[in-house]
Design a protein that fits this description.
The protein is 32% helix and 21% strand. The chain is built from five helices and six strands, in the order E-H-E-E-H-H-E-E-H-E-H. The chain binds guanosine-5'-diphosphate and magnesium ion.
Length: 149
C-alpha cells in the first residue's frame, strides 16, 4: 500500500505539502489539474472534493492508499465539505490536516477542527510550510499508520 492521498479544496496547500512530504523543497507548484503521483503521496485537484461529479473517481483512486488526508487552510471563508463525507471510505485511516497555521490563530484552528469533525474526521494535525517540525511530525504520523519509512 502507498501512503496518503491528499484531498481538499483549491489553494489550501496540498501540492506544496505533497512535495515536502516526499522531501522536495522549493518546488514551484502550478494549479493541479489531474491527480499527481508524488512518490508515496497522491495529490489531487481541489475539484475532487468540491464537486460531487468527482467523488466516484476519487473512490477508485484511493484504493491503493492507506490514509486519506483531508486538507483545510487555517483561514477560510467559504469551504464546504459534505457532512460525514469521510464515511464513504470506511476502510481507510482518516486524518485532517490544517495548513497555513502561520497565518491563523487558535480560533481559526478551532473553526477548522469543527469543519473536519463535521466531515467525520476526529484526528487533526496542524502544519505550516514555514515550520519544518510540523511537517516532520506529520511525516512521523503517516509513517506510523503505514509502517513505512
Ligand atoms: N502562508 C502559507 N502559505 C502556504 C502554506 N502552504 C502552502 N502555501 C501557499 O498556498 C498557495 C497554494 O498552494 P498549493 O500547494 O498550490 O495549493 P493546492 O491548490 O491545495 O495544491 C501557494 O502560494 C503556497 O505557497 C503554508 O503553510 N503557509
Ligand atoms: Mg495543487
Amino acid at each position: 500500500m502507498k501512503k496518503i492521498v491528499l484531498l481538499g479544496p483549491q489553494r489550501v496547500g496540498k501540492s506544496t505539502l505533497a512535495n515536502l512530504l516526499e522531501g522536495k523543497k522549493d518546488v514551484l507548484v502550478d494549479k493541479t489539474v489531474v491527480p499527481e503521483y508524488i512518490g508515496d503521496v497522491l495529490d489531487t485537484p481541489g475539484e475532487y472534493i468540491e464537486h460531487r461529479l468527482f467523488f466516484c473517481r476519487f473512490q477508485v483512486l484511493v484504493a491503493e492508499y492507506s490514509i486519506i488526508g483531508v486538507v483545510v487552510p487555517c483561514k477560510f471563508d467559504n469551504i464546504y465539505i459534505p457532512p460525514n463525507f469521510i464515511s464513504m471510505f470506511p476502510n481507510k485511516k482518516h486524518i485532517g490536516i490544517i495548513t497555513k497555521t502561520d497565518i491563523g490563530d487558535k480560533q481559526d484552528i478551532e473553526k477548522c477542527r469543527a469543519l473536519l469533525n463535521q466531515a467525520g474526521i476526529d484526528e487533526c494535525y496542524e502544519i505550516s510550510i514555514y515550520d519544518p517540525e510540523s511537517i516532520q511530525r506529520l511525516k512521523n504520523i503517516i509513517d506510523k499508520y503505514t509502517n513505512k519509512k
